[in-house]
């Protein structure tokens, strides 16, 4: 199958969209799929809440009164200082009221993401070809920085210095346009 946009390369990415209750399937190559011009978002469509997603998956709204009640003790009322939204309201509505809500509920978001993404807190899907190597280098830098922080906390300064040098080398690769000399 050939890309519907450039009509030159083989289509490797399939995008399925629903518009006016009609399913539209598009096939793009890796290059064209990375261009945001072809992914139009209909602004008239209201966002889907987490509750609606769970309702579709399991047949009942997860946070409704019909859902099975958990046996955990009630947690303290945590709320956003800016808009007053509580964590329970966020779970029910599935979206935040203001940008400060992200900061207010930051510590509890990983548990929500794990439930939504089958235990994962990070995206693990495919990345269009041109972005893949850059993304891998950035992820490696992030991991090395976490190890470096841990080494400093444990007062292993020689190990931290080695990790710092590795980070600098990877950052240099990024600024020079990707993985010129991959040393892994």
From TrEMBL:
Read off the Pfam families from this record.
UVR (PF02151)
- Which residue intervals define the domain UVR in the entry? 138-173
Organism listed in the record: Kurthia gibsonii
The family database entries (PANTHER family) matched by this protein are listed as: PROTEIN-ARGININE KINASE ACTIVATOR PROTEIN
Q: Which domain of life is it from?
A: Bacteria
Gene3D superfamilies in alphabetical order = UVR domain (4.10.860.10)
Q: Which residues form a coiled coil?
A: 153-180
> Which SUPFAM superfamilies has this protein been placed in?
C-terminal UvrC-binding domain of UvrB (SSF46600)
| Keywords from the UniProt entry | Coiled coil
Among InterPro entries, the record links this protein to: UVR_dom (IPR001943), UVR_dom_sf (IPR036876), YacH (IPR025542)
Its name, as the record gives it, is UvrB/UvrC motif-containing protein
């Amino acid at each position: 199958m050939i890309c519907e946009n450039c009509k030159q390369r083989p289509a490797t990415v399939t995008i399925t969209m629903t518009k006016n209750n009609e399913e539209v399937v598009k096939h793009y190559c890796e290059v064209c799929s990375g261009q945001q011009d072809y992914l139009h978002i209909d602004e008239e469509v209201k966002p889907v809440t987490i509750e609606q997603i769970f309702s579709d998956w399991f047949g009942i709204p997860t946070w409704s009164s019909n859902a099975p009640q958990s046996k955990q003790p009630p947690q303290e009322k945590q709320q956003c200082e800016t808009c007053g939204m509580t964590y329970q309201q966020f779970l029910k509505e599935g979206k935040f009221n203001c940008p400060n809500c992200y900061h207010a509920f930051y510590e509890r978001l990983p548990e929500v993401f794990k439930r939504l993404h089958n235990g994962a807190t990070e995206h693990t899907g495919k990345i269009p070809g041109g972005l893949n190597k850059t993304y891998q280098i950035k992820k490696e830098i992030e991991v090395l920085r976490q190890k470096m922080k841990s080494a400093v906390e444990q007062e292993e300064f020689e190990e931290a210095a080695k990790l710092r040098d590795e980070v600098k080398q990877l950052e240099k690769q990024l600024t020079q346009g990707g993985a010129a000399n991959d040393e892994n």
